Request: fold
Amino acid sequence: MEKIALIMNPGTRDMVINQKTIDRLSKIGEVVINEGGTDPETVKKVMKDATICVTSWGNNPVDADILSVCPDLKLLVHAAGSVKPVVSDDLWKKGVRVSSSAPMLSMGVSETALGFTISASKNFYALNDSLHHGGWAEGKENIRELYELTVGVISGGWAGRHYIELLKPFQVDILLYDPFISEEKAKEMCCRMATFEEVLEQSDIISIHAPSIPETFHLFNKDTLAKMKKDAVLINTARGSIIDEQALYEHMKAGNLKYACLDVYDPEPPAADNPLRTLPNVIMTPHLAGLANNGLKKIGQHVCEEIEKFLAGEKMLAEVTEDMLAKMA
Reply:
């Protein structure tokens, strides 16, 4: 019989795991719940003889000391995004399989990006402001349906792929810029590979889904922003460092871009005197794009699905290997 140890602290567990998930896990095996902190001694008590463990935000690496009490551990499912905080060399050496809940978090990001895509295209923001100031249809001529527009997607990772999937019901041309995705894979995703310059020049809407790495730092800067269509929409639900905020301010202050929809900033939170706050067509939300509130419970569902697939000998949705993690560094 499997022994499943939920070793996250109670506060984090309540965020991502509900009773429905506990009941589903209980059908798989014995579920042991951590009612204390995430210090090694507390975790070791919960992990004793576990064959599967579930970690989340706030957990420390599952190292040799912790593994000493669970010699038969075979799977770690991380009920959060990056597994970097919880894996260790000892875990890899032992051959424990590892899965992440990053795809679930990415769903919230891509859904937020789609929300920005629709609302900016429909000109909701300017029309709302007009009505609040006594107007009616001023700006209605700037409405654009998601029909025969070109949408550029920067990076085809979990969030980028799901955003593309969400766009499928609309009649739009999707361009993908991602140096690590092949033409064949792009066709499977129902989009067309393009250079970064092509995305900039041809897109009516650009949605950023890239990671924060040296290669993407200020990818959108004075020179690259200048290549975008004057009435384009720029959406960033990825990482603030990808956009040079001062360059974006200067570009938009000069009358360029229909909207910039930003959920992420560099630094966070943005300074009270950040000039982007003064522009009415810069739409700002407080880094809410990932799963929030009730949506976080999707993570618990994902944890159950990954465990069930693993035990059935099926391919898990989001397995992470040591080699994959090294490439993300």
